[in-house]
Design a protein that fits this description.
This is Biosynthetic peptidoglycan transglycosylase. It holds the Pfam family Transgly. InterPro entries: Glyco_trans_51 (IPR001264), Lysozyme-like_dom_sf (IPR023346), PBP_transglycosylase (IPR036950), Pep_trsgly (IPR011812). By secondary structure, this protein is mainly alpha-helical. It has two domains: 38 residues; 165 residues, Biosynthetic peptidoglycan transglycosylase-like (Penicillin binding protein transpeptidase fold), CATH 1.10.3810.10. Helix 3 runs parallel beside helix 9, helix 5 crosses helix 7 and helix 9 packs across helix 10. A two-stranded antiparallel ribbon has the order 1-2. The protein has ten helices and two strands; from the N terminus they run αααααααββααα.
Length: 237
């Protein structure tokens, strides 16, 4: 009898553990979807996983939320044209870019990024920073869902307010004050271009101490921003 009771307790314990694991997985899967809906109203100011990390490790961070209308259009144009030129044309994932990357990888080429602004936003909000196929696999459905739930304008607003522009510097308002001592609404085209091209690697690229290569990229970004036209139409409809 004692052996039977012991085996029964072991089975019950194993079943309870499986239930806990399954519930944890369910929460991990559903939480980003619930939060995406919760982040739709403009008065909600989301924080990124990196910002949470900085709080947990007591590093602190600088971030002042700024509404989309209070961000210099030149900055919006520069970031969009540098990071995701087809932002208004796709629904969260640029399948043409993804297919190009896959074809290149099959041909033995070095992997290149195909992340859209929507993919970068959901990564910053819900996922981790280190690269992996698992993270990329999660980015795609989350980006499609976010693009469906949020307007393009709201998506860009969230992205620009959670993007990391340096150690502990999050969002365009904090970045503008940190690098130029002005608000995001007063950024010039050249300043906006430097901030845009520094964004992919802010811990190495400095908007105020640019290398020759970064200066060339900034000039290109400034020119593309000036010619953005219909590429950014969805943000001002």
């Amino acid at each position: 009898m004692a052996k039977k009771r012991k085996k029964s307790k072991q089975r019950s314990s194993g079943y309870s553990l499986r239930r806990i694991v399954m519930r944890a997985i369910l929460v991990i899967v559903l939480l980003p979807l619930v939060l995406t809906v919760a982040y739709k109203p403009s008065f909600v100011h989301p924080v990124s996983t990196l910002m949470i990390r900085d709080l947990v490790f007591a590093h602190g961070y600088a971030r002042s939320w700024v509404p989309f209308d209070e961000i210099a259009p030149a900055l919006v144009q520069s970031v969009l044209m540098s990071e995701d030129g087809r932002f208004c044309a796709h629904h969260g994932v640029d399948w043409d870019a993804v297919n190009t990357v896959i074809d290149g990888a099959l041909d033995g080429e070095r992997p290149r990024g195909a992340s859209t602004i929507a993919m970068q936003t959901v990564k910053n909000l819900f996922l981790w920073s280190s690269r992996s196929y698992l993270r990329k696999g999660l980015e795609v459905p989350l980006a499609l869902f976010a693009d469906a739930v949020w307007s393009k304008r709201r998506l860009m607003e969230i992205y620009l307010n959670i993007a990391e522009w340096g150690p502990g510097i999050y969002g365009i308002e904090a970045a503008s004050y940190y690098y130029y001592g002005i608000s995001a609404s007063r950024l010039s085209r050249r300043q906006a271009a430097y901030l845009a091209v520094a964004l992919p690697n802010p811990n190495v690229r400095s908007p105020v101490k640019p290398s020759r290569g970064l200066t060339r990229l900034a000039r290109l970004a400034e020119r593309r921003a000036h010619q953005s036209g219909a590429y950014i139409k969805c943000l001002y409809e």
